[in-house]
Design goal:
Distance between the termini: 115 Å
Shape: elongated
Oligomer: single chain
Structural class: alpha/beta
Length: 425
Amino acid sequence: MDPKKIIKKYIMPGVFMRVGAVVFSLLLAVTLVMGITALNAEVPDPVDFYPSETPTGVPAYIDVVGVSDWLYQYDEAVYYSVEDAYGYLYTVRLNDRQFEAVTTVNGPVLILAGAGSGKTTVLVNRILNLVKFGNGYNSDYIPNYSDDDFKAGLDYLNGVTDFVPNGIFGDREVKPWQILAITFTNKAAGELKERIAAKLGDDALDIWAGTFHSVCGKILRRNADFLGYTSNFTVYDTDDQRRLIKLIMKENNIDEKFLPYKYALSAISNAKDSLITPEEFAATNANDFRLRQLAQVYKLYQDNLKKANAMDFDDMIVNTVRLLRDNDDIREYYANKFRYVCVDEYQDTNYAQYVLVGLLASGRNNLCVVGDDDQSIYRFRGATIENILSFEHRYAESSIIRLEQNYRSTQTILDVANEVISNNR
């Protein structure tokens, strides 16, 4: 056989196989050495990634640097600080004071927030935080995580998803129906519900979020019989009130020029805002003829409302206070039901609303109120700024948080406004 053919057919393939084997062995050896070097490499101290002031008690789902084993199982090159995770709650960036207001969930909290300071953002994220993570930020509880939990945490932190299932990465999470959020207008309540629903979905439907009157309406419809009403009681509007007052004055020969019906309605409303009954009003005004007539009208007005199975809007607050004060079982039910109570525009509350809030939050005292101590737009309706000024005296263990960064106005406008309101003191 031709020697060239023998070399080509029998010898060269063996040479190539041996050379290939040597090259493969060298590559494998280099890979192993690099792998061992990487495994033995010093991993940066996780503490270096903490913010300058390390919070006490950080939940495992965000404490990637403090409780980081699970993260390293997936990506040991990624580190997150507490602010990275909580500061981007549902992709919303919070400043330091907003962050504090969102995560201070235990006990009474007073948030002093002027216009444009992001108070609605704080309220929304505070409620989201309660439902998703509960007391997580302030807790040292570390649950046992499954692989699915680890993956969900990574996806959330890496921005793959903005949804984290309830009950995985928190501590003592709050059920939606255990949260009561009270606002002053239907518009504000609607915005609050809409923004919460955008993040919580159907869970948001179970949160008690509404105006004082809508919240009281729910409570009264369920318990009206304790007050001598039926559950289908009627709520009188301004026109209904005017007609009834005029009828009472006509039937009792009270001169409208001497006692204008508008004055009578206003005085009766103010009395109710202060939780003054017709009998108490009569007793304290016995020496004034016009006020004695007003007391008579007040008494007849309330009697006629009761006979018609009706309340006016002031009655809804007053009767809810009566219901809770006079019925221990009902008060305890709602006080225990609402683990967390939030009230917006607290500076605009009157005395009756102030008392109502205290009764509803009496179970755990987890009351968060938001207001501006330099602003009150409902003083003509009996709102008293003292409710917000005396908050820390009534609730001795309260936390006071000021939202001072304004996102709505320029510094020039803010300087002028602050100069004007400085005269409020």
